[in-house]
Amino acid sequence: xxxxxxxxxxxxxxxxxxxxxxxxxxxxxxxxxxxxxxxxxxxxxxxxxxxxxxxxxxxxxxxxxxxxxxxxxxxxxxxxxxxxxxxxxxxxxxxxxxxxxxxxxxxxxxx
Length: 111
Prior knowledge:
Layout: E1 16-18, E2 21-23, E3 30-31, H1 33-37, E4 58-60, E5 64-65, E6 72-73, E7 78-79, E8 83-84, E9 91-95, E10 99-103, E11 108-110
Antiparallel strand pairs: 1-2, 2-3, 4-7, 4-11, 5-6, 8-9, 9-10
């Protein structure tokens, strides 16, 4: 009896190994043993590659114009107690003097 894992896509028990890959003959899915250990949890990173967490304090790395307004949030503005969400704009926060808004993690750096 083989000790190979079931397919993560279709849960087939007929997987086989080919070198360093596992292959499912039923659905054709291929994966590596390392990918089995990875979690499905999404990781958000700032502009410098640091991992962001809920509750972090970040600073803007460029001036951001608020859509539909003539207001600009200046570079270096600190945003405290961020909340990470899925989507294009993955930071939910309140900016002092502006209010609630969503930011992209690529425009902030962790402090």
